[in-house]
Specification:
single chain, 457 residues, alpha/beta, Glutaredoxin, Rossmann fold, 2 domains, seven-stranded mixed β-sheet, four-stranded mixed β-sheet
Length: 457
């Protein structure tokens, strides 16, 4: 076809219109990509996707969330922080992220108590919390605590030689108490002799290994609190119950005589036979997804009574080779089947529940669940032993369950098996031979063939 001036002009207009439409299409695609976000997580275990537990927490939020990350500009941690927060922003756009260089704002860092480079300050409403651990579980739990309508007040009774929740002595629970504070719990020490009435906003009452007996009036106050359906944690010890027999009877539990002896510790280098190891856990919300070994020095076993008003479930049990030793704990120790000693497995921790009805101001009845935990040892949370195995994590799980925050206790870590490629030696040799020798020869041969064909033309 002969191209004249008219046809040439038409082709020029066609090219111009095509180019214009193409640019308009590119602009529209850019505009759509700005307004709409489409992402697909093709990684193994979907490690870049939030878990269902995190999504449930985001559904409970009703106000904006402000996150301030204190990280230096040259710090490589800014990238992971931004990636983690963006996962939450995709489901809850009211989350904002701001980076602050701690070197340029030392007064603000000192005022807020920032101690770690990369630490986050999460603000929700009038509440805030500092976060040092950068993972989904820690971030989600922080949001969950901030979304709670009320503060959780934990009362540790004192005046009878109990372990102090903020003390620094080996016997005390200072590290455990400070950990609870970082998770948003309010820790209080309460002496019933000075203040007989327990506060109405008490979320959880704790008795941690008393050394002297409680007075009858104090026991009555504790009994009244339990009858009203209050949450209760009792860290007991071998020996007498220090005036709390009425509490044990109300709960429907009985402590077995003697101290638990577990030979398993000797296999792991622990010479003291009174150190009990717990490696397997019965199914319960407290230990769901929990697999760490826990260590309990000088513990006592317990059992539930048939007339108990509460339903008890064992969540800590010893190994079958353990037993309750009622004799001296020195020299050669052996199980005595003819005495009062009980052979394992033994119950070391009980979770008790019951449904109670309470009348509200509008005279309507409302059913709520009472939760009680009794553990036959308090040393496992003491400063001297809380760092062993999973003791600290177990203690936090117990508190979360007692305060009805157990639905998001454990968010499993998402592994990344697709980040590592394992090849057999034959595959390694084949790939090396192919890319070092095979592929170059193929390219050279193809070039020679093309050159030869062109030469023959």
């Amino acid at each position: 076809m002969k191209i004249n001036q008219s046809i040439h002009q038409q082709l020029r207009w066609q090219n111009f219109i095509f180019t214009l439409l193409f640019l308009v299409l590119v602009g529209l695609l850019a505009w759509v990509s700005k307004r709409f976000d489409f992402q697909w997580d093709w990684t193994a275990n979907h490690r870049h996707t939030l878990s269902q537990a995190s999504l449930k927490v985001l559904d409970r939020l009703e106000a904006p969330v402000k996150i301030t990350a204190f990280a230096r500009e040259s710090n490589e941690i800014r990238g992971p922080i931004r990636d983690l927060v963006e996962r939450y922003q995709r489901h809850y756009p009211q989350i904002t992220l701001e980076f602050v260089n701690p070197d340029l704002h030392p007064d603000q860092v000192r005022e807020l108590g920032i101690t770690v480079d990369g630490e986050l300050r999460i603000e929700y409403g009038k509440r805030s919390e500092l976060l040092q651990t950068l993972d989904e579980q820690s971030f989600t739990n922080a949001l969950m605590r901030l979304a709670q309508s009320q503060d959780a007040h934990i009362l540790f009774l004192e005046g009878h030689g109990e372990r102090s929740p903020l003390g620094d002595a080996n016997f005390d629970l200072g590290q455990f108490g400070h950990t609870l504070q970082t998770k948003g719990f309010k820790i209080h020490r309460w002496n019933l002799a000075k203040q007989p009435e327990l506060p109405d906003n008490t979320t959880l009452l704790v008795i941690a290994s008393p050394q002297v007996p409680y007075l009858p009036g104090e026991v009555h106050q504790i009994r009244t609190y339990l009858e009203k359906g209050g949450a209760f944690l009792w860290l007991a010890e071998p020996g007498k119950t220090k005036g709390l027999e009425e509490i044990a009877q109300f709960l429907g539990i009985r402590f077995l005589p003697g101290t638990i002896v577990d030979p398993t510790g000797q296999l792991l280098g622990i010479q003291d036979p009174t150190f009990t190891l717990v490696a397997e856990y019965p199914p319960h919300a407290i230990t769901q997804g929990f697999s760490n070994i826990t260590l309990f020095p000088r513990a006592t076993a317990m059992e539930t009574m048939p007339e108990s008003p509460l339903t008890g479930e064992a969540f800590l049990t010893t190994l079958p080779r353990s037993w309750t030793e009622t004799g001296p704990l020195s020299g050669e120790i052996q199980f005595d089947p003819d005495g009062d000693e009980r052979e394992g497995p033994l119950t070391l921790g009980l979770a008790l529940t019951r449904d109670i009805e309470s009348k509200q101001a509008d005279k309507e009845k409302k059913t709520k669940g009472q939760r009680v935990v009794v553990i036959g040892d308090g040393d496992f949370l003491a400063n001297a032993y809380v760092g062993n195995g999973g003791n600290l994590d177990l203690g936090v799980n117990v508190i979360q369950w007692l305060t009805h925050n157990d639905q998001f206790i454990n968010i499993p870590a998402k592994t990344a098996p697709d980040k590592q490629l394992t090849l057999s030696p034959a595959a390694v040799y084949f790939i090396g031979f192919f890319f070092l020798l095979g592929l170059p020869f193929i390219l050279i041969g193809t070039g020679v063939v093309i050159w030869w064909q062109r030469r023959k033309r």
